[in-house]
Amino acid sequence: MHPDDRQVASPVKGRGTATRILHRFHREDRERVDDGWPADAGEDGGQDAAVRTQVTHEQAKTILSRNDSPDLPFTWSINPYRGCEHGCIYCYARPTHSYLNLSPGLDFETRLVAKVNAADCLRRELAKASYEPSAINLGSATDCYQPVERELGITRSVLQVLTDCEHPFSIVTKSSGVERDLDLIVPAAGRQQALVLVSITTLDPALCRKLEPRAAAPHRRLLTVKRLAEAGVPVGVNVAPIIPFLNEPEIEQVIAAAAEAGAASIHYTVVRLPWEVNPLFQEWLEHHVPERAARIMARIRDMRGGKDYDADFAHRMRGHGLWAELIAQRVNKAVARHGLSRRPLVVLDTSRFKRPGAEAVPRQGSLF
Question: Which domains does the chain possess?
C-alpha cells in the first residue's frame, strides 16, 4: 500500500518529488490519521533516503504517435520511454503515468517503461505504403536521452532507422547524452534532416538540482549546444518552462548564454500545470521556496485567466494577459539583441525519404 498520497512528503535527494500522489482515475482515496500512537520503525510513514529506479521492458505495438495539437510544429513523435528519471517537477507529461495505473508523482520518475522494440516498430510503420513522410520529433513528452538510455540505446536504434531511411527528425532534450549520437546526427544535418533543441531552464546549478534533479547541469547543457553547433548541427535552445519569480528573472541571461554557445534559435514556454502536475508543483513550492509560493501561484493565475491552468491551445504554451505579454516582449528583445531567431533556421527535407524494404512489413497470409 502506498503512503497517504495527499500527505506532504519529505524531499528525497535526487528526486523531484517524494509523493506518490493518487492519479485521477483512482477509485479509492486514503487519508492518514494520527491516532495518538507512535509509528513503528518499519511502518510506511516516509520514503527511504534512496529510491531505486525500476525499468520495465515493453514490446510496443506501435511507436509513432500522431500529434493533432495546432500549437506543436510536428505531426509525428516518438517517445522511447514512459516516465522520465530526470524528475522535473513541472513536467507536463507526468499525468501520462495515470494510464499505467501508476502515480504521476514519484512513480513517474522511478518506475519507467522502455519500449525495447521501438526500432522494429518504426521500420514497419515507415514501410507501409500509406505512410507519408513528415519530420518526426523525438522526446516531445519524456526525454529520449534520460539516464537509462546509456544502457538500453533505444533512441540510438531509432535514429539508426531514421538515418538509414534518410527521414528527417528533430530532438528535444536536456541531456548531454545526445552527443553520443553525433555520428548519426551530423550526416543527417548535412542533408537538412536533423534539428536539435536543448532545453535550458536556469543557469543556477542549485535551482537546477531542485527543479530537474537528474538532468544535466546548466553548464553541461551549454557545452552540448556548443558541440552541436561546432559539428554543423542546427541547434536551438528551449527556455522552458518560464516560472514567474523563480527562473523568470534569468530570461535574458539564459538567452545570452545560449547565443554565446552557438544556438541559432530560441523557443520558450511558460509553466503549465495540467491535472496532477498542479498539486505536485505547489507541494514543491512549499518545500523549496515557501516565502515565494503564494506569489508564484498568483502570477501563474494572472497568466491563466485566474485559473491554475488553461488548456486552450491558443494560450497553454504562452499564457495570456499583461504578464504573458511582458515575458514575450522580454524574450523577443533578447533574441533580437543577440541576432538570433525565434524559429528554426532550417526546413527539414522530406524529399530524400527511402521507404524500408518489403521485408520490414509482415506478409499477409494466403487464404489457400
Answer: 54-344 (3.20.20.70)
